[in-house]
Amino acid sequence: MKSQNRNLFIILLFFLSLLNSYAQKDISKLFFNLPLESSRDSIYCSIKKYGFIEESTNRTVWQNKKIIKTFSGYLDVKTLGNTLADSVKIQLSTASSFIENDNYYQNLLIVWNYHHFSNVKTAKEFYQVKKNEIKKIVSEKPYHFNNYFEDGTITAGYSDTFYEEKGDREVSIELKRKKKEYHIILGYQRNEGEKKLRGELIPKKELIVREIDSKNLFQSNNVQQAPVIEKCSTENDKSIECLKRNIAGHISNDIDFESFGLTAGAHRVFLKFVIDKNAEIINIKVSHKNTKLCQEIMQSINELNIIEPAINKGIKVDFLVDIPLTITIEN
Predict the structure, then answer these.
(1) Residue 319 is inside which H or E element, if any?
(2) E strand spans, 55-142
(3) Are 155 and 109 in contact (CB under 8 A)?
(4) Residues contacting residue 180 through CB under 8 Å, at least 6 positions apart
(5) Residue 249: enclosing H or E segment and its boundaries?
(6) Which of 86, 95, 222, 312: CA 20 to 30 A from 43?
(7) What is the DSSP annotation of 28-54?
(8) CA 119, CA 235: separation in Å to the nearest integer?
(9) pTM score > 0.70 for this model?
């Protein structure tokens, strides 16, 4: 009898693992049949084999003192075939997630598909089809979010995120309205590598100070194209407004301002730094009476990922970023 129960248990385990492999295979179908459970290198190679053309970038990503594979590119028109979207982009990226009361962190592997539509009806139909496909694969109910423009009145899009119960994987779909286009973004995220103590994070980058000729230093009022930060590159927005907005957003998300003993109310912090012609951040200056806060903001700025330097008359130039930042501390 015990032998029969044991055999039954083994069969059940096999059946469950088989179901999981089918589910994983189905998820992979949403991402051009990429081997999502394989290594990062395998996914990178598969993306290139599929026909995606890699966009040129100076970005180098390090994890645990090793360069890791990332990819950002678009699908060749010849390969696009009968795809409903006007164009398709894909991105293989990385991030870190803090777990267990923020005592540990774990690296993440992230894949994004960007489907661009000029027709809103087609975009919404595509969204619903893909959402239903995900529902069949992931048993958990999605979290639904409505995204609004800054005034909070007009819906700019919406998203559904499916979290696995174990927290190992996440599948999401998002619809965004960007000017006259509609973007459907399919996202896949899973843990990559072992969890580590927070103190084992990669050491902070060294701040660079270099002498710059002020005569050759450009600003927003006399340059043709501002430097492009990673998020603005993803959004295909090379404006100075996008640069400033995302720098402020990066700092706000990166730093817990309430941990510096600031009094309640608004605090003005002035940021100045140079993005040189090699897309490197140098000469960071932050002005506020709280020295520790200034140091943290300087380090946060130093971690920004600049994709392109400023351009003037077709030439890469040094660019001065000058941003006032308002920090509000609640009572």
Answers:
(1) strand 315-329
(2) 61-63, 66-68, 71-75, 87-99, 104-117
(3) no
(4) 118
(5) helix 240-254
(6) 86
(7) HHHTTT--TTS-HHHHHHHHHHHTEEE
(8) 18
(9) no
How far is it, in rounded angstroms, from Cα 109 to Cα 41?
11
Check residue 225 and report its DSSP letter. B
Cα dihedral value 220, 223, 225, 229, nearest 10: -40
Q: For the chain, report the end-to-end CA distance as a whole number of angstroms.
A: 67
Cα dihedral 73, 98, 202, 287 sign: positive
- Whose tokens are 């903001």? That residue is 297
| DSSP label at residue 204 | P
Smallest CA-to-CA distance from 325 within 223, 225, 259, 255 is with 255
Name the token pair of 30. Answer: 């949403």
The DSSP code sequence of 259-271 is GG-PPSEEEEEEE
**18 vs 242: which has the higher pLDDT:** 242
Contact (CB, 8 A) for 320 and 221: no
Rounded Cα distance between 164 and 142, Å, is 10
- For residues 331 and 328, give the distance between their C-alpha atoms in angstroms, rounded to a whole number: 10
- pLDDT tens digits along 198-255: 666 556 678 889 888 888 899 988 899 999 998 888 778 889 999 999 999 889 888 8
63-67, 181-185, 228-232, 309-313: lowest mean pLDDT where? 63-67
Could you write out the DSSP letters of every residue in 1-15?
A: -HHHHHHHHHHHHHH
Handedness of CA 305, 307, 312, 315 (dihedral sign): positive
DSSP secondary structure string for all residues of 135-191: HHH--SPPEEEEEE-TTS-SEEEEEEEEE-TTSSEEEEEEEEEETTEEEEEEEEEEE
Q: Are 53 and 71 in contact (CB under 8 A)?
A: no
